[in-house]
Amino acid sequence: MNPIDWIDANIVDLLNGLSLGMLLFIVAVGLSLVFGMMDVLNLAHGALFLAGAYVGVAVLGDGEVGLAVFALALLVAAAVGVVSGAALAGLTRPLAHRGHLDQALLTLGIALVVADGLAAIFGEDVQSVPAPAGIDGRVSVLGHTYPTYRLVLIGVGLALAVVVHAVLERTALGAVVRATVADRAMVRAVGIDTRKVLLGVFVFAAVLAMVGGLLAAPVLGAQPGLDDRMLLLALVVVVVGGLGSVRGALVGALLIGQVQVLGVSLLPEYASFLLFGAMALVLLLRPAGLLPAKSGVPA
Description:
73% of the residues lie in helices and 3% in strands. It has helices at 3-9, 11-38, 45-60, 67-92, 100-122, 148-170, 172-182, 184-189, 194-220, 226-241, 246-266, 271-285, and strands spanning 138-141, 144-147. With 299 residues, it is an all-alpha fold. It has a two-stranded antiparallel sheet with strand order 1-2. The protein has a single domain, classed as Orthogonal Bundle (ABC transporter involved in vitamin B12 uptake, BtuC).
């Protein structure tokens, strides 16, 4: 089979891999920046993603919803993300100099509490969340029908990647963030409160995780265990793409999204081996990841 025929035969899986990659980017870029900037290994990130999905269950229900109601749900998820991010930043701050093991144990404990609490409230069954009316249909892509919402999701992920990169590279706020990563003492010396900068990054990451969970809910649903799966994939993305790098998170997410979807579709018995095999290959050839941040500065 020539490449064009192969692409035509697998176009739906390729688009599914692209949409999963965009979801992984939304989750992984926040995780990468928090680890790269604050040196905090936040294993509660997946629980925030799951909480965002259950915000969709609580606000949207399982009936038809309009874009305005969906936008309201996004605002609710973002607000919960702000509070959660601030709380996590405060809880992890005393452990800043005690190593990653203590941070991992604390945030893992928080993740388990959150996941069990959500299961107690919403139950163990898979909860479905509707896509907004107007983008809940299907369109033709190269002769194949494909859900409109997933295409919108791809566009949202790409737009977010452009915005985050532009803010970090082209604005005064981004300059402060980069300077805080490079030389925190110097930033404090010029009168900038680096604690607020670090808090802002943690809150930003939590908001992305919550919003990502809500955006994923019409595709993946909300169910116990979703947090663990997405956290594992996001960690693989961070390792493959390079720590603290926006471009690395995007490239890593697109790669892992395709490996995951095509692996499950074409070689289901080897899917997990392909996922971690791809990570091992990248680390063997480029130990710092595909596009690591230079000198710890987000790229």
